[in-house]
Amino acid sequence: MQLDLDFVRAQFPAFAEPSLQGQAFFENAGGSYACKPVIDRLTRFYHQRKVQPYHPFEASRLGGEEMDEARSRLAAMMGIATDELSFGPSTTANTYVLAQAFRQHLKPGEAIVVTNQDHEANTGPWRRLADSGIEVREWQIDPVTGHLPLDRLPKLLQGARLLCFPHCSNVVGEVNPVAEITAMAHEAGAVVCVDGVSYAPHGLPDVAALGADIYLFSAYKTYGPHQGIMAIRRELGMALPNQGHVFNGEVLYKRFTPAGPDHAQVAACAGLADYIEALADHHGGAGLDPRGKAALTHDLMRAQETALLQPLLDYLSSRNELRLLGPRRAEGRAPTVALQAEAPAGDLAARLSRHGIMAGAGDFYALRALKAQGIDPAQGVLRLSFVHYTSRAEVDQLIGALDREL
Asked: Based on C-alpha coordinates, what's the Rg of the chain?
């Protein structure tokens, strides 16, 4: 079944916004457009529910119910229990809180494994555990391909307690085999933390099927408000030291939320479930359960993205003045494409903007991954990232702009 792009784009007010007409958005990996259900829920909350939630009066009761709805519906779509999902101000903040819990949980001399493929959010907080005597081992990428070699992992995992790696790198773009890696880690006795920020916008994952003990992603890159979303297996979450208020210590989804949540944004995240459900229903999935609807939309999104990505990869591969990071086949990667150019990446992004191309340039908080591939983070890379709502005409507009500016 093919994605109905007209239906999709009608769910995003940005495509009807006069100030954005004629511009093609290719910085989705930095933050996607918000879908209408999210915007409507956020607006309603500020208009009608902007009070402390969970009291018995009507506005408070409804506000709390909407926050609970966001948690329960998204958890069901991800194949986890409701209390295994929690919200925080960002994925970076969620990771720092987790790292503090592991700092207390692990003993000096015990080991963890991180990668140099990650965004800094899923490597920097963990590396700081070395200050407390934790051994930090680095799973290094191939300097040419950016690939994480699986054959290097078993040795790194020997005696390790924790493995942290990305589902998909925000500059390499390759989709890592999470289930296979997680199985290797579990066999070695390690728990697994997966950074899904660069993957979740391309379809909500089945966290249970992946086997990840912790799975993190950002709602604002997944058509929602600026929130970090964390899934954590109950057994692990209750074993780690409580990082929240002492009186919340027995409530799993509150244990890693030290500060009060942003009530309105948490409630608005139910709009993500609204959108996924509407997309599934429109494409024949009305009879499916929440996980089935999420799986259907995942496949629809990935099929649309793959069809648009391969022609772009083929074009970029033909340009000798560009270095394309990551795989050259669309099936094995996300539509997040980083390029090293002869000129500073920022200059090229500025020139493309004159042709209506909204693209980003820089290091994208992936300095370690860029340095490992021989790229000067100061010069940076041009990143072209899109999602399922991107049209073929926009990809053609991008290729035409590149043709004129390279």
From this structure: 21
DSSP assignment string, 217-253: EEGGGTTS-S-EEEEE-HHHHHHSPP-S-GGGTT-GG
Residues of the chain above pLDDT 90, percent: 98
Cβ 348 vs Cβ 382: under 8 Å:
yes
Parallel, antiparallel, or unpaired for β 228-232 and 214-218? antiparallel
Structure tokens at 276: 């996924």
Of the candidates 232, 193, 295, 213, the one whose C-alpha atom is nearest the C-alpha of residue 84 is 232
CA–CA gap between residue 134 and residue 399 (Å, rounded): 47
pLDDT (tens digit per residue) in 279-311: 999 999 999 999 999 999 999 999 999 999 999
Instruction: Give the model confidence (pLDDT) of 31-49 as tens digits.
Output: 999 999 999 999 999 999 9
SS3 399: helix
The two structure tokens encoding residue 385 = 């990232």
DSSP H or E stretch at residue 70 = helix 58-78
Question: What stretches of 231-344 show up as alpha helix (H) in DSSP?
Answer: 234-239, 263-268, 270-282, 290-317
Per residue in 88-109, pLDDT (tens digit) is: 999 999 999 999 999 999 999 9
- How far apart (Å, rounded) are the C-alpha atoms in residues 358 and 398? 9
DSSP-derived 3-state class of residue 216: strand
DSSP 3-state of 19? helix
**343 Cβ neighbours under 8 A, 6+ residues apart:** none
Q: What is the pTM of this model?
A: 0.97
**Angstrom distance (rounded) from CA 48 to CA 226:** 20
**How many CB atoms lie under 10 A from the CB of residue 68?**
17
Q: What is the pLDDT of residues 206-249, one digit of tens each?
A: 999 999 999 999 999 999 999 999 999 999 999 999 999 999 99
Q: Can you read off the two tokens belonging to residue 136? A: 């930090």
Closest CA to 137 of 146, 154, 147: 154
